[in-house]
Amino acid sequence: MSESESTAELLLWRHADAEDGAPDSGRALTKKGLKQAKQVATWLKPRLPGDCLILVSPAKRAQQTAAALDLPFTTEQRIGTQANAADIIAASGWPRRKGAVLVVGHQPTLGRVAADLLAGEAAGWTIKKGALWWFSNRAGEVILRAVVSPDLL
């Protein structure tokens, strides 16, 4: 059995820097945000398991962030701007689904998921714009494998 078959991987990628405005779902990435998305995508793409399921919020800024990977993805309504931590977990199938799932979504929800996975409660942790947090679950043990911030790439 390969590592990806025996391990559940959950990657949380917050959309990159976006314009202000309304409607919220239509906000596009700024020039800075496009650069952030490209930086993280360049780091992530060669490391991403080939069978990774990529779930993306329908919000324009999340769609643009995911598009930087240049890989097929699924738009998932349950991880949109109104999602809560339980919605993210349900959509991803964590930790029952073996293999990797990448969720491209929003704060504060992604930070709450990260807190729940590592601390056991949905605290108000912050995932920076454009940043990626990569978790593994092997035999019930949650491990934070990587935190990647575009300003460090």
Summary of the model, kept short:
The chain is α/β, with parallel strands linked by helices and 153 residues long. It has helices at residues 3-6, 31-44, 60-67, 85-92, 109-119; strands at 8-14, 53-56, 74-75, 99-105, 132-138, 141-148. Strands 3-2-4-1-5-6 form a 6-stranded mixed beta sheet.
Written description of the protein model:
This protein is α/β, with parallel strands linked by helices. The protein has a single domain (3-152), classed as Rossmann fold. Helix content is 29%, strand content 23%. It contains five helices and six strands. The protein has a six-stranded mixed β-sheet. Strand 5 (132-138) and strand 6 (141-148) form a beta hairpin. The N and C termini lie far apart (33 Å).
What is the fold's blueprint, element by element?
Blueprint: H1 3-6, E1 8-14, H2 31-44, E2 53-56, H3 60-67, E3 74-75, H4 85-92, E4 99-105, H5 109-119, E5 132-138, E6 141-148
Parallel strand pairs: 1-4, 2-3, 2-4
Antiparallel strand pairs: 1-5, 5-6
Helix pairs in contact: 4-5
Features:
single chain, 153 residues, alpha/beta, Rossmann fold, 5 helices, globular
